[in-house]
Amino acid sequence: MTATSRGAFIVIEGLDRSGKSTQAAILQSRLQGPEQSTTKAVLIKFPDRTTTIGKMIDAYLRSQSEFDDHAIHLLFSANRWELASTIYAHLAAGTTVIADRYAFSGIAFSARKGLSYDWCRAPDIGLPAPDLTLFLNVEPGVARTRGGYGEERYETEDVQRSVRVVFERIGEEMKTDGQGQWVEIDASREKDLVARNIWRVVEPLSRGVASSLRKLWERDLTT
Question: What is the pLDDT of residue 41?
Fold first, then answer.
């Protein structure tokens, strides 16, 4: 970490049961290992179910309450904005931030319901933009065989397939607009191999980033 660098902002996205939480924890541990003695890393999970808004989202995901599709989308976005200042503070202090899901999940899960893609994206314009987004790609049929599948509202194979299509659109948009790296990782493989493939992409960022932090879809902020 140099005097002028900041922490890296890394987002891990993917379908349900693609291994996001497992790989995020492995990555955090790797970043804080003895060979990375200058690195600090924190893990943030979205939704953050500990806040007042997060508790409302948790009840919805567990099918214990109902919301209009527009309303729940805005609650997910508000939950991310709750932690935006925390993300900025960590990065400025030189700490790497790993996010397990982010705005891209919000767009993908809401747009697949038939809500306007642009409308779904709008509430998250201006959030801190990740330096790297890792999309853990796994066939919905493979994800369905993993432990815990089906415990929450969106964990059905049909939903996951349509969500995947929206994620593909987001990935292409991110690459075209220069919104930071979007890297697809084959998450159907053995856990340790997936972790090694992730590390190969993350390692160049592990000691800090010299460039200033961008904002998501920042060109929309000036139009």
Answer: 96
| Per-residue pLDDT tens digits for 107-144 | 999 999 999 999 999 999 999 999 999 999 988 666 66
d(CA 190, CA 94): 32
Residue pair 115/70 in contact by the 8 Å Cβ criterion: yes
Contact (CB, 8 A) for 176 and 127: no
Q: What backbone phi and psi angles, to 5 degrees, belong to 29?
A: -60, -40
First vs last Cα of the chain: how many Å apart? 36
The structural domains of the chain, ordered by start, are: 9-213 (3.40.50.300)
**Rounded Cα distance, 201 and 76, in Å:** 28
- Which residue shows structure tokens 């902020």? 221
Give residue-wise pLDDT tens across range 73-112.
999 999 999 999 999 999 999 999 999 999 999 999 999 9
Mean pLDDT of 4-19: 91
In whole numbers, what is the pLDDT of the chain averaged over residues? 90
- Record the tokens describing residue 165, joined without a space: 């299509």
Q: What is the C-alpha separation between 2 and 4, in angstroms, rounded?
A: 5
Instruction: Write out the DSSP string of 105-165.
Output: HHHHHHHTTT--HHHHHGGGTTSBPPSEEEEEE--HHHHTTSTTTTSSTT-SHHHHHHHHH
Radius of gyration of the chain (CA): 17
Strand order in the sheet with 181-186: 40-45, 95-100, 9-14, 132-137, 181-186
- At 49 the three-state DSSP class reads coil
